[in-house]
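Reopening: Retinoblastoma-binding protein 5 still failing for me.
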Amino acid sequence: GRSETLQTDSYSEADGTLDCISMALTCTFNRWGTLLAVGCNDGRIVIWDFLTRGIAKIISAHIHPVCSLWSRDGHKLVSASTDNIVSQWDVLSGDCDQRFRFPSPILKVQYHPRDQNRVLVCPMKSAPVMLTLSDSKHVVLPVDDDSDLNVVASFDRRGEYIYTGNAKGKILVLKTDTQDLVASFRVTTGTSNTTAIKSIEFARKGSCFLINTADRIIRVYDGREILTCGRDGEPEPMQKLQDLVNRTPWKKCCFSGDGEYIVAGSARQHALYIWEKSIGNLVKILHGTRGELLLDVAWHPVRPIIASISSGVVSIWAQNQVENWSAFAPDFKELDENVEYEERESEFDIEDEDKSEPEQTGADAAEDEEVDVTSVDPIAAFCSSDEELEDSRALLYLPIALVPEDPEENPYGPPPDAVPAALPDDALGPDRKRPSCSDGPQAPKKKPKTTNIELQGVPNDGGCEIPGTWGRGSRSQGVWGAGRGLIPGFQGFGAPGGV
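Support: Ran it again with your exact input. Result attached.
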């Protein structure tokens, strides 16, 4: 049946905001949409519980702006930043498992959709790199032109292939395991003119993907046709989506959870354009606060909800909830105003208590059968087309972390003047030690292993200098005062939605 992801009259209102205190730059849902990871400009990753709309965990990940992405089972989070470091984090504990230091800033990271031991990294001014986390090895992916290193890359939906695109409009399709070239084509604008590839995004369902190019047109392709055409093919896009009136350039594009709709965020203002993929018609335009610039867009994996970022705050867009009680009681009649009730003639008749009940036959007899209330059927929306069962290890929610009160803010404690001055350990005597604040021994956190990744022809710049103040303060510090040109040629911190 037809997808119910979006209706024409939906999304007319914003459904609240998520304020991380720090300036939010990028956001991404986990695979189930229960948690939302937000990367901030002070290097922190704020994980929101999307059900309660509260902060579940804060990870101090980097010292520069961050982009992040979930692993498939939700237990790991890989982050990258303009401080040249890619890190893998344990979501439950907030500890860093391992780090990789690159010679240049990182524009994008992506887990392999089916193997979270492999990570695709897109460094600035370098060919894409595929990391293997278990042995800390890396493979530099082949590119079409060694002189053109403005390359973007993405795994396809199942991770069988890697699609790369360069500034000359050339798309390469590489086999993930062997890095062999299996297909290629060039994106052209009418004649032989080429256009730069800005991003490649795949739908969570189906074989479609989109390409955002510098000519302000979003092209939608079928991955099966690309593979059929082979090398130097000439596939035709299924749809070409653009703003013919304003010629809007696009900051970030992505598919809906079911792949039936496409949302694109304007690079000029806080405006979201939504198209229906099958016929290419513009369904809705969502306008945020005038004068704000859009930084990132993410569509909820299974619900008709869109998250967008502008002015450092995450805005939530959702459908207008209309109550329909007739869905529960088909004979229920909704009233616009009070009316006098006219009872039916037999409505209040007394039933005969001595009347014998008729014997149950057919469908009535089936009601006495035993009902299975212990088995849990997998939710189809959380399973791919080639999967039958849900992931039993999936991390859907984070437990509540108990934070002790600050002694200075304890209203029942002694006043500050009554607290004796701190004494050195020697003054307490040989047999007396300073009491521990914790009930048990604190296990020292293991220091994560850091691996240096050397790329041929890329000098180590020791981190990218970003203008502005990167303190852990609020947006009033003017952190974003440098404007939207953080790095020359930088395409943004956006990371695709969870897979």
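Residues 89 and 455 are 24 Å apart (CA to CA). If you still see a failure, please send the error message rather than a screenshot.
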